[in-house]
What does this fold into?
Amino acid sequence: MASQLRIRAGQWSQAGTKPSNEDSCGLKLVGGNLLATKGIAGVIADGVSGSGGGRIAAETTVQGFLSDYYSTPESWTVKTSCEKVLSALNRWLYGQGQQMLGGEHDLVTTLSALVLKSTTAHLFHVGDTRIYRLRNGALEQLTRDHRVRAGGGRSFLARAMGVDPSVQIDYRSLPVAVGDAFLLTSDGVHDALGEPALGELLADGATDPEGASRTIVERALAAGSRDNCTAQLLRVEELPIEDEGELYRQLAELPFPPPLGPGAILDGYRILRELHSSNRTQVFLARDTESGATCALKTPSVNFEDDPGYIERFRREEWAGRRIQSPFVLRVLEPARPRRFLYYVTEYLEGQTLRQWMHDHPHPPMALVRGLVAQLAGGLRAFHRLEMVHRDLKPENVLIDLSGQAKIIDFGSVRIRGLEEIATPLPEHHLLGTRGYTAPECFAGHPGDAASDQFSLAVVAYEMITGALPYGEGALTRMGKPRPYRSARAHAPDATPWLDGALRKALSWEPARRYGDVMEFVHDCSHPNPEFTTSDKHAPLLERDPLLFWRGLALLLLALCVLLTMLLLR
It folds into this structure.
């Protein structure tokens, strides 16, 4: 089977009877890592003639889309990448058009874009250009024209790029099969040629996309089209579907390192000592024999040498770490030399885990806790901006260096949305993290998102303040009736009501009830939210003021004892 996507593509565009060609089209055929993470893109645009700046709008949109899409993070999904790029292009077109006098040179264009990634086609569309698919001899229109019919046979565009500051882009995705042919056309083509004619032309020339595109344009002009005519054709030749054995052979190109100990040298790194060991990985303190720099080496466990799923996840750890740049996340470094074994290199930090720090600080000042929570939230946001989810935030996966700065470590459970779009023969296992810290929805099969990370952060904050877990270690795995939140003030009376309210919200059993962004939680941890201070008045006294509750209960019991004693004496 093929190990990567392979297509044949071609395009053709002519001005026809018009003095200039206001259509534009473009293809981007890439290889290597970009082929897997971003795929192959084709786009067609038809500048609106009445706007005066149609040609500029179409060319700018095509060139900008193909350039900017491949500049977006590889961890982003196709949908996120394209929508952000098209939104920015639309704002630019609108802004530039508004600066032109009299509105006679508005930059307005239609657009249809196709991204083929792994085994999926992603379609983006606005206006009246079209995308068709030819499969097993049947032609199907995949896009819907945004055109409104008026009286007298007239019509006008209801939606296009550059008309307003924001634009609604149609999106859909569908699976791809070998032999599928995708045709993108401007209205000068499909208005002149009906679907039967297009289907016949594609069936005859699908194996020669360049020649078929030219033939389609010439036939449209011969049929009387009085508009610019553009056609673009992409035919799927092979798909990246592998069997597990082939994938394992690719993953096993780098063998596992030999047993390492102090003094051993691995690809120019001298092992100084072991920092951490588990049944899944080992971490060693090492020194680069050339530069003298100190670093840490993470190696896989030989227990999983024949497990392709484990090897793939280990390699994804490095992939994720290399793309995250944050002062609150452990840095994964570029190897100084070519590797002969499977491992990756990180910065070395002197310090202790948050778990050790919590043992040393059983009753930390609230200001110190808020500072650490803010740092961890900053680290999580670095993941979330790249459409990644950490999914295993806990005190053991946080390192505090000698300056007091917190850094998130261990990327073994990271979810990468963009890589989920890449087909693999390996079954997907959602790594649930650690009981007591993982959000309850993950135990019900949810793969985890930013709200799940927020829940884990709130558990860590709660534990730093109280020394306990809000729901206990086993409660989160039982998906029956949710346990009621136990106020942090029951353990730490000095916790303010508004801090307790922020924890309660972030620890909501239902993700929709949590904060929209983790930084909102951080803000409410440091600033009194009237919502929590007001509602606190109606909360049970045990939650509002545990100390007052127990003192009152003790006095009540004492009074009862005195009363009973007096009754007995009588």
Summary: Residues 388 and 416 are 5 Å apart (CA to CA).
